[in-house]
Design a protein that fits this description.
Elements: H1 3-12, H2 20-33, E1 42-43, E2 46-47, H3 51-60, H4 76-86, H5 100-112, H6 120-143, H7 148-151, H8 164-172, H9 178-184, H10 191-209, H11 229-236, H12 251-263, H13 274-280, H14 284-300, E3 308-313, E4 318-323, E5 326-336, E6 345-354, E7 358-359, H15 362-375, H16 379-382, E8 385-389, E9 396-398, E10 416-419, E11 430-433, E12 442-443, E13 457-459, E14 463-465, H17 469-477, H18 487-496, E15 500-513, E16 517-519, E17 525-527, H19 535-543
Parallel strand pairs: 3-15, 5-13, 12-14
Antiparallel strand pairs: 1-2, 3-4, 4-5, 5-14, 6-11, 6-15, 7-10, 8-9, 8-10, 11-12, 16-17
């Protein structure tokens, strides 16, 4: 007889159980002490997920049931669990991942039986199914369904660590609505998240209506023109024609098209060209998947970003400074090219550099600059680069005229390149430093014309900021920040041209994030193209079968 059989046999030899409630307690203890296989727990024929948290939860309760009274009557919260699980769909998750079918079947059993006739063995299964479902759903609300490290090697923001067992304790002790309320406390409590949830419901409604259809292709449509497709655009943007001719591209429709273009990161010129038509033809079903991916990204983020912080939306090519819950500054930015993608991470800005020199990373020196030098003999002198060898006391300046550049290659490049401050410097007049292992920072740029582009993925990974001096002013002498240096003093240093490091007296949290569906301060949802192809792997992971034992706390 094996150990498990011995244990069950021992239970049969115990003194008679005083009442069914005591038998349920003992069955819960045994089920959680003796797993079917190491690390695996099965209840009602269903493999459970949160084995370790379940054991801790019931051990802390002295193995007392959470969803049933001592007389085997179900507690009010159990009636609210199934609706709470169905509510996972509103957050972009699949209710079937949380034992929905098994719990519905067991709920039917409870409705067909009176407490005195219920089998403690079956009640133990219901207990474990219900608690596991709530713990697993709570963990996904608090931390996301997918571990970002599994699908996105460039996502480095640490997730929060709330104790989901506390949510279970709150849920089981309340009324019918307690499970939904307890779970709701674990979701991101910000208007942007709630707006995406509302947009998800709206796009699902469009999908289910069956009325959506693609607008046919053809030549670009300009305001004032007539075309049969204009009627479809009127319908898509929900704008009534001003006259009796639905094929006329009239002024109200033009205004709606411009708004649509702005909301989708397109040039708001009112012309329905190929890119605008492509955006108009993104189906509601595709938007549903896009919204699910971005809701998941919100669940990966820290719940409290701080009272003031700087946020760079990589896919949206924008920077936002937030103080006391209000956006105090916005700027267009340039981010990394698709093959030099800007990573997602959080850090703390601690200093900035006025009139920065640029110490060129070795990778960029050999991949980007060396080919220019080999093609243009005066490239280095024209742009103010020094050629160096060694560091510190060993550093030597090399005359570029003495170097056989044609003989050098990526694998054989013994030099360092440093660009002096000046109008041609790649970092412009200021760089904003938040030390991080990725060597990514914010900086000015002399290439101002690139900010007029719709999509601005042109850098080698760092963030170029349009008109950055007001940001420097706010950091060093903002209305709610300790004064370090006035705007006049900043301009004086810039005019002198001397490289100057200025420390912040109060570090500023910086978040580099990636959203292809975001919400502005007015609650409008903006869609962006997935420039790095990060949505598809995330959607696939959300749709994959639930992991056997997901992490739960």
């Amino acid at each position: 007889m094996n150990a498990r059989s011995c244990l069950f046999a021992g239970l049969l030899l115990l003194a008679p159980v005083a009442h069914a409630g005591d038998e349920l307690v003992e069955r819960l203890r045994v089920r959680l002490e003796v797993l079917d296989r190491p690390g695996e727990l099965v209840a009602g024929g269903t493999v459970l997920y949160a084995v370790a948290p379940l054991r801790r939860f019931y051990e802390q309760r002295g193995w007392q049931p959470a969803w049933f009274e001592p007389d085997q009557q179900e507690r009010p919260a159990l009636a609210g669990l199934i609706p709470a699980i169905r509510g996972a769909a509103e957050q972009g998750l699949d209710p079937d991942d949380f034992h929905l079918a098994a719990l519905q079947s067991e709920w039917g059993y409870l409705q067909r039986t009176v407490p005195a006739d219920r089998q403690p063995r079956r009640l133990a299964d219901i207990e474990l199914l219900a608690s596991d479902a709530l713990l697993t759903l709570a963990n996904q609300y608090a931390n996301g369904r997918v571990d970002p490290a599994r699908i996105d090697p460039e996502w480095f923001i640490q997730r929060g660590t709330p104790s989901v067992t506390e949510a279970l304790a709150i849920a089981v002790g309340g009324d019918t609505g307690a499970p939904a309320r307890a779970l709701g406390t674990l979701l991101p409590d910000v208007p942007a998240y709630r707006a995406l949830v509302a947009e998800l419901a709206a796009q699902r409604g469009l999908t289910e209506s069956g009325n959506w259809r693609e607008i046919p292709g053809g030549p670009a449509l300009h305001p004032g023109e007539r075309d049969p497709r204009v009627a479809d655009v009127h319908s898509r943007l929900e704008v009534e024609p001003t006259g009796s001719d639905p094929a006329l591209y009239d002024s109200p429709l033009e205004a709606a098209v411009r708004r649509f273009q702005a909301d989708n990161g397109l040039e708001a010129d009112g012309v329905i060209g190929q890119r605008t038509l492509e955006a108009l033809n993104v189906s509601p079903a595709r938007r549903v998947e896009q919204l699910r991916a971005n809701l998941e990204r919100w669940r990966w983020l820290p719940r409290d970003p701080g009272n003031e912080y700087l946020l760079v939306d990589i896919a949206g090519f924008r920077l936002r400074v937030v103080s006391n819950g209000e956006t105090v500054m916005e700027r267009r930015v340039i981010v990394g090219r698709p093959y030099r993608r800007t990573p997602v991470f959080a850090a703390r800005m601690t200093y900035l550099v006025l009139n920065p020199s640029w110490e060129v990373p070795h990778k960029l020196a050999v991949q980007d600059i060396l080919p220019h030098v080999q093609a243009e003999p005066d490239y280095l002198s024209r742009l103010g680069f020094k050629v160096l060898q060694g560091w510190g006391a060993e550093e030597k300046t090399i005359d570029p005229a003495t170097v056989n550049w044609q003989a050098l290659s990526r694998a054989d490049f013994p030099y360092r390149l440093r660009q002096a401050p000046g109008p041609e410097n790649a970092l412009g007049q200021v760089k904003f430093m938040f030390p991080n292992p990725h060597n990514v920072y914010l900086h000015d740029t002399p290439a101002k014309g690139l900010f007029s582009k719709e999509e601005r993925a042109f850098s080698s990974g760092c963030i170029r900021v349009e008109d950055p001096l007001p940001l420097a002013d706010w950091l060093l002498d903002g209305p709610d920040r300790p004064a370090v240096m006035t705007a006049a003093e900043i301009r004086r240093i810039l005019d002198i041209g001397r490289e100057t490091t200025v420390s912040l007296t109060r570090p500023l949290p910086v978040y580099l994030v990636y959203f292809t569906a975001r919400v502005d301060d007015g609650g409008t949802v903006h869609y962006r193209r997935d420039i790095y192809g990060r949505d598809a792997p995330l959607i696939d992971a959300l749709d994959a079968p639930a992991p056997a034992n997901p992490e739960s706390r």
